[in-house]
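User: Batch of two.

Assistant: Item 1 of 2:
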Amino acid sequence: MSFRPTLPLHKKSSTAWLARQSRDPFVKARLSSPSSYRSRAAYKLIELNDKWGRFLSRPSLRSVVDLGAAPGGWSQVVAENFGWTFHAADNAEDFGLREETKVQKRGSWSTEPMNKTTGRGKIVALDLLPMMPIPGVQTLQMDFLAPGSARIVRDALKSSQNPEGTADIVLSDMAANFSGSKIRDSQMSLDICHAVFDFAKGALTVRAVDERGKTSCGGILLLKHFAHPLLQEFRKEHLEPNFHLVHYIKPDSSRADSAEGYWLCRGWLGRA
């Protein structure tokens, strides 16, 4: 999947953007927060979690994958919910190294984070861009669609509680750079949704019923998209048949003039 580089801002649009930023309460909160979230988007995930059943806070949650994670705001929120704190600096000396170099240095793709003292579970964050370390989060600088990526992520998620290395939650806040063409931008959003779904269907924990008739929750997919009829078709063809419940959400922290929205898909059925 190719992405266009960000277009340069003209002086007028740049001034308008700066004015909007100065008025934005979530930008102000991020700059003043002791948690020091790396992006405004962190507040969207906090809001979604708080208003939709605190799906990141379930004690039974074992594993989360954050796709297109840089600069790391969503991974920070997940780490908080897993009990990690932000004052530590896991593997800071590894920042900027390619994954192959980390493997040579540490000996494994799935090495435990250093200074593991307070958190639980496994969090894996993937992006083509390097990320500064986050306590409790294993970052992989790689394309999540590349051959072998799914195996690497599964290896990173494996634990005694999760020997198969499946993901209880897959998160995607990815978006392509806007081109100014509604048709092209909608197609790019659709392409990303297809790519994330293709990854998720091989990664998520399947909703199942045990011999006592107890139903497991099944994996959750939280997926950003931009409203368009093509995207609604994607929901009907791919999401609704494969998840127990699919909710459309436009969080308050999402700007009102944006077509951005999220699908919260609960209970992966494993049919795809």
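Item 2 of 2:
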Amino acid sequence: MIAVCGGSTLGYWPQGVDSPPVLPNLWFRFSRSDQGIGWDGYVVSRARYKGFGSVRSTARLQMACVNEKVDNVGDLGEDGSELDEKSRNGHVTVAGRAVSQLATVGNSTNIMWHGCSVDKAERQKLLKQKGCVIWMTGLSGSGKSTVACALSQSLHRRGKLSYILDGDNVRHGLNRDLSFKAEDRAENIRRVGEVAKLFADAGVICIASLISPYRRDRDACRALLPEGSFIEVFMDVPLHVCEARDPKGLYKLARAGKIKGFTGIHDPYEPPLNCE
């Protein structure tokens, strides 16, 4: 979310933040719209935060994003009827005024979110299910992949569409350029989290099965999805049990010094504190 005051960006806060800063004339808005027809927004009136729960259903706002600057150009009204849904060449008409939707995200400049009339709700209606992410985390040998496959089979028998993002499998393609160094492991989880978000947006039940040892990385993936759409499952199996199983022979190699930085042996595993 982006906080703006006047025409300047004041700061960024993740969706679901419990207590955003108190600033005069502060406005919050989503940095993208699922409807693809402008920006959904929340109002925080003069120097007073009204509370996220009550603010979620407030009127939408008109926002223009130009070169990382955000300009509040007024209230759309309850139904957003004042917004011209037609967008051309990266611009949208707001209250008779053409404003740019081009944005900068990370190292990507001059990009624009392109919406579609077939949205998540329509896809879920077609599939007769709700898209979500079931994130299975635990030590190597804890049974993540086995349980993920069993869950997928059970869902399939019930007529539910699911897809598994397995930690080893994604490293055969999407993440084959990443090592097991700390920074690469974080990037591995970030990429999988983004892909999982896309599956959930498509209405698919995405089952992510990865060691994902660090809480901060798992929490970052959780923050990508709406509340209730990220289900964290902790495979709480002790290290000595996982090592006794050793289905891939990795613990043996790690003990022999042939694998460095192995989770549970050399590197820590941070168990979830409040998993579903």
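The helical segments are 52-55, 120-127, 144-157, 167-170, 182-201, 215-222, 239-245, 250-255.
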